Queue: 2 jobs
Job 1
Amino acid sequence: AHYADAIARMPAQKESYYAFLSLRLEELHTLIRRASAGENVQEEFRRVFEETLRYAEQARTRFIHDAQAWRAQGALYELLIPFIDRAEEQTFTSYDRAIARDPQNPALFVEKGRAQLLFFNRLLFLSRDKQADERAALEQRAGAVLADAHETLSRATTLKPDFAAAHFLLAQTA
């Protein structure tokens, strides 16, 4: 509530938006953990997600040239990739727009690559119970996503050769 108040009082301060969004992302992670333990948090998750998305969209609109606004939105949609069909589209679009605004920031490539790996794993999971033709199509798509992740993460290591997170994730694409 404090960050929301700060945003209401000083809407031109992007730091308040980003602190609020970061805090809300952690809250959503906590809700996902609670749900995985069997607790019904669907309504609370929906409410927090929608409010967080509203603030992310406000930040993106207000600070359209700032990569952080798009990065925050990408991180928000990334949470949904394991659960919601087509969430990866918004995730990748948001990260791509962040990268377009700050193409020398290797962390943005790592975050997009991490999301691509998450989507790759989801595709493999979905393919397990499918008939041969559908399974083959999902596996082919997963292979393309993995190749894209490799390219994305390679770009991060080109920008910052000693970036451990990039190398760790890149190793998962081999």
Job 2
Amino acid sequence: GLLDEMNMIRVDSFVSKAGMSSTENDQMVIEFISSGLEKQSLLIGVMGGRISEGTDFAGEKMEVIFTLGVPYPPQTPEMKHRIEYFDGIFKGRGWDIVYGSPPWHKLTQAAGRGLRSLNDRVFIVAMDERILCRAKKMNNLHRLPLWMRDNIKEASGDSDIIVNAAELFFRSDI
């Protein structure tokens, strides 16, 4: 699998797993940061988990972040009732409050883990076509913070665009 391939090219891989205790998670993060001082390291976690929302990677501790998908939860009867409840309070905005916006907050939290000060720089690759969807009902750019909207580039399956942007990013001092 992917982790085996990463180990073959001498990249230390760290995976946040379900059921890890806080102590185990903290130890894994310490090992990831220490490993990254000597060579390239890969940290894998889920959006909405400890790594993506509760851990900061300031400076050069995390220089590239990949996000895969937008973490929409499964729709449940309880969620439907919450949507109806908020529809009544906020004039039809229940779906957005309960279901539409929270995944985008998780995406933003995950993407921003390496941005903890004005001096930090992170190359972010957010992989989900819904991010740049142009259809009126599906447009989601407004859900992203301005710092992401102002710097977003569309690759549309062209990996050369990502490679070129990464090379430019890591060469520049901006």
